[in-house]
Amino acid sequence: MPGTKRQEQKKQTRSRILEAAIEQFAKQGLTTTSTVAIAEAAHVAHGTVFAHFSTQEELLSAAIEEFGKRINQRLHELAGAGGGVREVLAAHLKGLTEHEAFYTRMITEARLLPEEARNTLIMIQSTASFHLSEAVEKEITAGSIQPLPVHLVFNGWVGLVHYYLANSDLFAPGGSVLERYGHELLQYYMTLIKAR
After folding, report:
1. Is 125 helix (H, G, I), strand (E, B) or coil?
2. Of 146, 139, 124, 150, nearest to 67 (Cα)?
3. φ, ψ for residue 194, nearest 5 deg
4. Are 193 and 148 spatial neighbours (Cβ–Cβ below 8 Å)?
5. Which sequence spans correspond to the domains of the chain?
6. Domain 1-54: CATH class, spelled out
7. Domain 60-193: which topology?
8. 79: which of 31, 32, 112, 131 fits an S-S bond (Cβ 3.0–4.6 Å)?
């Protein structure tokens, strides 16, 4: 029985470190946050971080993987109801808004990340693309949106959202760019793809 209690404590400590890492990476940057800052935020000794993650890169990969699981689950919850294009895009915005700071770091620092971390970003995009593809095909068949290639509809949307996120210091200094402009971006994009 004592072994299980110790295992549970280790699990909780690891979880606390991951939570602190996700928070600190979002605030300070994925490639510039120190393990000292993460240890302080998690209220653990610096060496404890390395007892759970052998390197800083392993911690970063674990944090990104955990983030990827969370946001994918949230996107499935929000967009999985089978709504139309507008509803799927609104769900995508809502899911990203809930994790905006970390997601923004991922897209702006993607080229600096290890391959497995970049793969997590691709996984997140694939989840959004899956839900959007289903809605686009239905609405093209119904004639409510233009008969555009699905990949262009998705890439156009993501490009628009990523542009605003990557330039959030211009559009919403110190605040959420998606809370400030999300509705407007959605309206604009729906106008672009609407059947003429």
Report:
1. helix
2. 124
3. -60, 145
4. yes
5. 1-54, 60-193
6. mainly alpha
7. Tetracycline Repressor; domain 2 (1.10.357)
8. 131
